[in-house]
């Protein structure tokens, strides 16, 4: 026969402790997920900005080697500071990034 004192299953205290642990864990894990997704979006946007800046750099560098630069870029500000007839410094800037390149002929 089975003893009445011995029960199979969880006691009310064990269930309440598990619920308390879960109620602490769930909001913190959701916050961590939200933070990770926001960081991923920022990194992706920065990578796209840098990629656009590198493409503009290649275009400007090729034109500068040929003698004249005529680039129209709406999103990226750029400036060429001529050092001498064979060298110049190209500065590309967006709201959050600045890149400088040495151009040579």
Automatic annotation (TrEMBL):
Read off the Pfam families from this record.
N_methyl
Protein name as annotated = Prepilin-type N-terminal cleavage/methylation domain-containing protein
């Amino acid at each position: 026969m089975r003893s009445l004192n011995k029960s199979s299953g969880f006691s009310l205290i064990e269930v309440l402790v598990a619920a308390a642990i879960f109620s602490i864990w769930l909001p913190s894990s959701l916050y961590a997920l939200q933070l990770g997704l926001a960081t991923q979006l920022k990194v992706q946007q920065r990578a796209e900005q840098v990629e656009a800046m590198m493409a503009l750099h290649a275009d400007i560098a090729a034109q500068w080697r040929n003698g004249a630069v005529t680039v129209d870029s709406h999103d990226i500000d750029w400036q060429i500071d001529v050092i001498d007839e064979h060298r110049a410094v190209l500065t590309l800037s967006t709201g959050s990034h600045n890149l400088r390149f040495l151009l040579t002929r």
